[in-house]
Amino acid sequence: MMASLLRFRKLCYVEPAISKCSFQSVDKVIKKHDNQSCIPPPPPPPPPLLKITNDGDKRKVLRRRRDPKEWRCLDWCCWMIGYICTTWWLLLVLYNALPGFEVPESPGVKLKKEGLNALHPVVLIPGIVTGGLELWEGKPCADGLFRKRLWGGSFTEIFKRPLCWLEHMSLDNETGLDPPGIRVRAVPGLVAADYFASWYFVWAVLIENLAKIGYEGKNMHMAAYDWRLSFQNTEVRDQALSRLKSKIELMYVTNGYKKVVVVPHSMGVLYFLHFLKWVEAPSPMGGGAGPGWCAKHIKSVMNIGPAFLGVPKAASGLFSGEAKDVAFARAMAPGVLDSELLGLQTLEHVMRVSRTWDSLMSLIPKGGETIWGNMDWSPEEEYDCDPTKTKYVQSALSESSQSTNETDGKLGFKVKDPVRYGRIISFGKTTSQVQSSNLPSFDPKEISRGRHQHKSNSSCGDVWTEYDEMSRESIRGVADNKAYTAKTLIDLLHFVAPKMMRRSDAHFSYGIADNLDDPKYSHYKYWSNPLETKLPDAPNMEIYCLYGTGIPTERSYVYRTSPTDRCKSIPFRIDSSVGGSGDGCLRNGVYFVDGDESVPVISAGFMCAKGWRGKNRFNPSGIPTYIREYKHKTPAFFEGRGLESGAHVDIMGNVALIEDVMRVAAGATGMEIGGDKIYSDILRMSERINLRV
User: Fold this and answer.
1) What is the Cα gyration radius of the chain?
2) What pLDDT, in 10s, does the model give residues 8-35?
3) Is the N or the C terminus of the chain less surrounded, counting Cβ atoms within 10 Å?
4) Quick one: pLDDT band at residue 453, thresholds 50, 70, 90?
């Protein structure tokens, strides 16, 4: 009975139009049964459908309805995220469920079925920024972070205490070592660089596939090191080179005296090149192992994404703290990075910290104008960025000639006005294109006379860079209609950042040796430059250059002076408003060539294509070299970072590259895995370089 009364009360409350029952009678009934006082009165009746105005006209009035809630930006974002996730989930289900869409077999499973097993020990050497760093001693602002990652992982400390994080990630500006009271060290073990962040793999896929054929901790090692330091300073501070030598010797003995396969990535190839010279050099400067150590202990060096001859983006990063990503951000959102509203000075902070990392200076382009070109010539001068023209030329060439080493044809195209890539930095688009005879030359001695005159007011701003010691006259002298090649770029960096380059001069060199038997080349500053050092006497060792192609890669830049007069700011910037017409090689102030998105083909492949090919003065024992290129294939939406990517880091998940590494680790030689595999124009570009080998 009580349930019936409650339903009746709800009916009277919700549907007042039909509640003609007496409110008082309902009240009596309820009082009789549950002694309640009364039911609240029903809501007011709805407005009439007709409304009569003062002048007697009649017009319809709709029932009042609640206005739909206006969608905010957050609502749209949530809706889009939900839509994308749902679509991705459905595509993933279809990808795994429908016939013909099976997940491809991993290289580890495939090669295991073929009978391959672990044979040679494997040493992995990470490149710049991909290895984790953890705190061992810090300032009071870093309390609670002992042995927590400052680099790699979640990066949460950047957002919690950014200035404290920047202080601890910096090195001493004079010594290039630890600042007083701060000790940041490399994370040890395979976890040092398996993932850069929890969702971004680096070495993890290769490690997992190697494990499928029997690799584990006893025959696979990650040679982690503090990638911020100069290569020799990793030995001075951490004895990293000595520990690598001992680890290779131990793995050689404990794995049946099998030689080691070394797999460096990116800047790690320069680090290991330095090691090859260090380990046989006499102590105390070297490891003291003597000639023959490399021939005894190393089977192959499989260089992934090698930056043997440097990368132009390192020069732009040291010069203005920028690269193509910053230029693109400026083009998409002008003024955001330079806004004074929040006073963030993001790029100034980036420059101040990165200029203390000596390792970045190892990536400055090497070989000068001989390798990278001069004002009017470059080895990539026939390259064209227009994909339609490239495909046309490739098809025409493939019809007229056959390649001898699996090449897809020449990725070059003769244009009427070749791009002058040799001008790595040009102030103004016109400066990057006109004849060199119309350009003024850069004379650092001439403009350095006024370098310290009329300094900017040092009392403003919070971030100090070496630009604060330059006068306005010097800044204008650097920029006035000038262009800089790989040779004059070194002079430019000496002029704008003398303290940084003093450390650079102590640890690195960027030239080409005339006489490699000159005793001066026994100094460690030359050991990471392949054009100023000899390979070891190890004729049975193999060297591979493994890299991606088919991705526009930074080669040179169009600059302008900064429009702001704010002190303690960077006076130069990439001119992101500048774009090309027709050939498409110039976008947002950056000229592009073929490469893996970070390293141009000429830097990655030249040493294996010509510099070390055969027995010559750089390779006196004739160590065999192989080029294995991986043509980039853009991954589908549901493929993540792809199985055939040629990008600089994503290539670590390329199934063809992983298979090559595993076959060599299991005992195969370069010829047994197919020899050279070339898609780019590296052979022709190498022939254009007039280098005595």
Assistant:
1) 33
2) 444 444 444 444 444 444 444 444 444 4
3) N
4) very low
Task: Please give the Cα distance from 46 to 18 (Å, whole number).
Answer: 13
Q: In degrees rounded to 5, what are phi and psi of residue 530?
A: -65, -15
List, as own/partner pairs, every contact residues 31-39 make where C-beta atoms lie below 8 angstroms and the sequence separation is at least 24, other chains included: 33/1, 33/2, 33/5, 34/2, 34/5, 39/9, 39/12, 39/13
Amino acid present at 188? P
Known catalytic membership, residue 491: no
User: Which residues face 543 on adjacent strands?
Assistant: 301, 625
Question: What are the percentages of helix, strand and coil residues in the chain, rounded to 5?
Answer: 40, 15, 50
DSSP 8-state secondary structure symbol assigned to residue 152 = S
According to DSSP, the β-strands at 586-587 and 590-595 are antiparallel
Q: What is the pLDDT of residues 519-544, one digit of tens each?
A: 999 999 999 999 999 999 999 999 99
- For the sheet containing 542-549, what is the strand order? 220-222, 122-125, 260-264, 298-304, 542-549, 625-631
Strands 260-264 and 298-304: parallel
**What backbone torsions phi and psi does residue 135 show, to the nearest 5 degrees?**
-90, 130
Annotated catalytic residue within 594, 596, 660, 681: 596
Residue at token pair 């050991």 = 527
Q: 682-687: long-range contacts (C-beta < 8 A, 24 or more apart)?
A: 682/601, 682/602, 682/605, 682/606, 682/609, 682/627, 682/629, 683/407, 683/609, 684/382, 684/410, 684/412, 685/379, 685/380, 685/601, 685/602, 685/606, 686/379, 686/602, 686/605, 686/606, 686/609, 686/610, 687/610
**Domain residue spans in the chain?**
107-132+187-365+510-688, 133-184
pLDDT digits (tens, 9 = 90+) for 474-483: 888 899 889 9
**Residue 637: CB atoms within 10 Å:** 10
Q: Which strand (E) or helix (H) includes residue 461?
A: none
- Total residues found in the chain within this entry: 693
The Cα–Cα gap between 88 and 86 comes to 5
Q: Of 230, 349, 648, 681, which is the active-site residue?
A: 648
**Is residue 598 among the annotated active site residues?**
no
Residues 6+ apart with CB under 8 A from 136: 146, 147, 183, 184, 185
Cross-strand bridge partners of residue 627: 545
Task: Determine if residue 79 is left, alpha or beta; phi over 0 gives left, psi from -120 to 50 gives alpha, anything else beta.
Answer: alpha
Whole-angstrom distance, CA of residue 515 vs CA of residue 36: 109
Known catalytic membership, residue 648:
yes
Q: Rounded to an integer, what distance in angstroms lies between the CA atom of residue 529 and that of residue 510?
A: 7
The CATH number given to 107-132+187-365+510-688 is 3.40.50.1820
Which listed residue (266, 316, 576, 680) is catalytic? 266
